[in-house]
Amino acid sequence: MQAGREAQGIVMPGDAKQQLVEEIAARLTGIRDPQSDRIAVHQAMPRETVYRGPYTKAAPDLLVGYNHGYRVSWDAAVGKTGPEVFSDNRKAWSGDHCIHPDLVPGVLFASIPLAADKPARIVDMAPTTLELLGVDKPDYMDGRSLL
Length: 147
Prior knowledge:
The protein is of the alpha+beta class. It has 2 domains: 15-103, no CATH class; 105-147, no CATH class. Helix content is 18%, strand content 7%. Strands 1-2 form a two-stranded antiparallel ribbon. The longest helix is centred in the first third of the chain and has 14 residues, at 15-28. The mean pLDDT is 89.
């Protein structure tokens, strides 16, 4: 997409690119599978709404959080496109990270007391681990220690 970054990129970095990313995110969010009329994309998000800190620019421009039962195609995962926007998956599918995090509840077991004032989130695991190891959390790191 971006000129000078992708081999066939045509969008110049800056405001035009950011506007395009936001437009694509808005159009993808809530898109429906025409066969089932189910929402396929729970939410598409520009990277700046998901990440912060010194490594944000290393993230994809856009993150797509799929609904249950949907994911990127096998071809799209390697940079190809298929003839259809929606197609049935006919291969074994296990353990990827395409579902929007709001739709994936988790369970945390611990043998030590943890803070119970707010629900634990996956981003809290690294700060908690760092505190257990006696290492200060970097300012740019998301999450909080659960200790």
